Amino acid sequence: MTEGADPAFVTLTVRAGLVVVAALCVLCAYRAIAGPTVPDRVVAIDAIVTNVVAIAVLFALLTGRSLFVTGALVLAIIGFITTVSVAKFVTEGEVIE
Prior knowledge:
Elements: H1 7-34, H2 38-63, H3 67-92
């Protein structure tokens, strides 16, 4: 077996992943806009943040720039804190006691 995959195959796979994740972002945006309840919208926005993190990582793989991975990590942390805060606000009515 060879050491690495074919670069053309990796590039094609990363581009296909970008298209799929972008399509998922559009579907999640629909749920965030038309969601019947607030928790539905919160989950949709959390999914959008997760998809944007995936897009950043895939773009880093495509371009070879590690700065996008750092940005993705920061965005993931902010998304997690935001989701926990909104979930606490929805369930308890306040974020900080």
